[in-house]
TrEMBL record, chains A, B:
Belongs to the ROK (NagC/XylR) family. Transmembrane segments: none annotated. Pfam families: HTH_IclR, ROK. PROSITE patterns: ROK (PS01125). It comes from Demequina lutea. Its EC number is 2.7.1.2. One of its GO terms (biological process) is regulation of DNA-templated transcription. This is Glucokinase.
């Protein structure tokens, strides 16, 4: 009952030993001497020295400063060794798979992608991921023992605790498929799985908005979804579906059926297929989201008008998000958002007109900057965060001590 | 860039010394021996012994176990001493002030309240708070040196970093008034100030839903607002106004002006004054929210119907909250919600009909259990959380060492 505002987050740190805290202190990248580390942790100098040595051997920490170059007494300062180990970030979309190998700062060292339907199933998709992953590690001159983890984004709901996709509507064959086990057995490292929009929110923020603690990433493509970061933390909610704004009811669409079985959902009114339907009704030859994007890029005014109107509809739901979350930044991503500034313009129009001045005075609404890389960047951040957690570093230290 | 999912929360722990962690470990209430504490913190036995002794002297930790009662060797176990110190929780409403003294577990030891308009201004309100606070400390047999902090809830927007009310619409004379300085000078302890609905969310959760990490408290009275707890943490947003759902646009109220200057806000359609207006239009003699509540309690069907319809309108906005936050529990509080189950029934009707099954399958929507105590309980939790934070305990330890 006591720790009401910290909750579980705080609980996570209670089991730490001071030796792990030493590494967590170094995670900010600033170099420190052994005696600084001793006074920060309260550990004996000799304990600090032996832990630092183990972390250097693990490739997580490196000596810095001029002492090394002069070849004299041992280096006096130590810092996080961001280039010492690597992770893989995998972004599985409805009709593409992207993969990147990054260092521990999230810097992309090599990447690859393929056009592939997620509906081909987990065996086909993960076989490509495994082959491409091994190739990329080679390209980045990383040994398989340098790999600390794999992050994967999937285009459907994922149970956070297990990493299993749960009843994903556009992923036949994937329901409860154990992705962590499959890739874990092939690579021998922890595998973290999350929803693609959560992953994109992490990636976009890490790449372009690192100091923004209240952040919403909205993906507008074949579907509509969002990833919510509040208080600096990705929020998943009670069932892991926080941010699922595609099925918020929008009154003017009362009669439009949605694939979810309900009527009047945001997605049924403003995602790519809905825009295509509007344009077909106006007599244009449009089948898919891709056709919509092509028309917009060609400057077709009907298409531009329809995308802007979709932006206004999305803006209606975003006004509620603004009131509930009070974000500093909202980013629009996904193929429809990235076809120019039209969706953004429509969304801004409604949000700035309908929200409280205090909430919008400093609110930025922007198109994605990370673009197609948001997914792999976020997946790698997920893997890095897990790999550098106190528990994992503790496990690594214990394994080398044996 | 690295610690993308932990953000600032994690940063909070980086400066800790191991001695503070010792107390943070004991905050869960479980008794532990000195040697358990030594192995959990990595500190030397002698350091643990002296820190434990200081914490016992501060009244934050107490010896437990039978060793004390037999009068032999010193007690072998130590635990948080919840009854060792106290805090004050103050709930300032539009037309009432409540105050309670609680122990460090949030247990109310004594309380008082008065009917007073917040519009009387800070000097009058805080003078009553100071007098009542001193009386309550006496009643609870607490010396002024036992007081660790004061939490205050105000019925308007509060800047989180400073505790200053910012342009509060119903609080003439309070704009940027320094409540922490006023009470801090009188009581010599830290004073934490927050918005009343955030405070009620903390209090309701602490009292009745301590293990629920995704939680929304909605207050429906003269106005409508909510407090949002995500991932176990109260979310304040970029400007401290997260949860401000009273001004979300509701389409069917397009022509109804709101006191905020906009039209069609939830509050303009479904708060007490809006229900009173509906009933006046139906020919009833209703002026205020209090009249509405009296009619509902008397079983007037027009009033019951109007409150239920208000519940449906609130439910519309709550469906968006459910999609964005994915809460496990939504609690309705405030005077209109507590006039029976009618508002609740209307809200449930719409939320369960319009939200995704995965989001509502295990969602509870409930009336407040803490009721009128939610505010003072939450204010005391705010004070307790601050008082027991690593930084504050460190400061206390340092002051006794001098």
């Amino acid at each position: 009952m006591l720790d009401v505002t910290h909750g579980d987050t705080h609980g996570d740190t209670l089991g730490d030993t001071a030796g792990i805290d030493l590494f967590q202190i170094l995670r900010d990248g600033r170099p420190r001497t052994r005696s600084e580390l001793a006074s920060l942790t309260g550990l004996a100098r000799s304990t600090v020295a032996s832990r630092v040595e183990s972390l250097v051997r693990l490739g997580l920490v490196r000596p810095v400063g001029d002492a090394v170059s002069t070849g004299g007494r041992p280096s006096s300062q130590f810092a996080l060794n961001a280039s010492g180990r690597v992770v893989l970030g995998v972004d599985v979309g409805a009709s593409h798979v992207r993969i990147a190998v990054t260092d521990l700062s999230g810097k992309i060292l090599a990447q690859d992608s393929v056009a592939m339907e997620v509906a081909e199933g987990p065996a086909a998709v993960l076989a490509w991921v495994a082959t491409a992953g091994r190739e990329l590690l080679k390209k980045a001159n990383a040994a398989s023992t340098d790999l600390l983890g794999i992050g994967v984004g999937l285009p459907g709901p994922v149970e956070h605790a297990t990493g299993l996709p749960i009843d994903p509507p556009i992923m036949p064959g994937w329901d409860r498929y154990d992705v962590p086990q499959n890739l874990g057995e092939q690579f021998g490292v922890p595998v973290l799985v999350d929803n693609d929009v959560n992953i994109m929110a992490l990636g976009e923020r890490a790449a372009s908005w690192p100091h923004i603690d209240h952040f919403i990433f909205v993906k507008v493509a074949t579907g509509i979804g969002s990833g919510v970061i509040s208080g600096g933390l990705l929020q998943r909610g009670a069932q892991g579906i926080a941010g699922d704004i595609g099925h918020v009811y929008v009154p003017q669409g009362d009669d439009v059926p949605c694939r979810c079985g309900n009527k009047g959902c945001l997605e049924a009114l403003a995602a790519g297929p809905a825009i295509a339907r509007t344009l077909r009704a106006a007599g244009l030859d449009v089948e898919s989201s891709a056709d919509v994007i092509a028309l917009v890029k060609a400057g077709n005014t009907d298409a531009i008008r329809a995308v802007r109107e979709a932006g206004r509809t999305i803006g209606q739901v975003l006004t509620a998000c603004v009131s509930i979350i009070n974000p500093a930044v909202i980013v629009l991503g996904g193929s429809i958002a990235q076809a120019g500034e039209h969706l953004l313009a429509g969304a801004r129009e409604v949000v700035y007109a309908r929200s409280m001045p205090l909430a919008t005075g400093q609110l930025q609404i922007s198109n994605s900057r990370a673009g197609a890389n948001a997914g792999v960047l976020g997946a790698s951040m997920l893997a890095i965060h897990h790999a550098l957690s106190p528990e994992r570093v503790d496990a690594l230290l214990a394994s080398t001590a044996r």
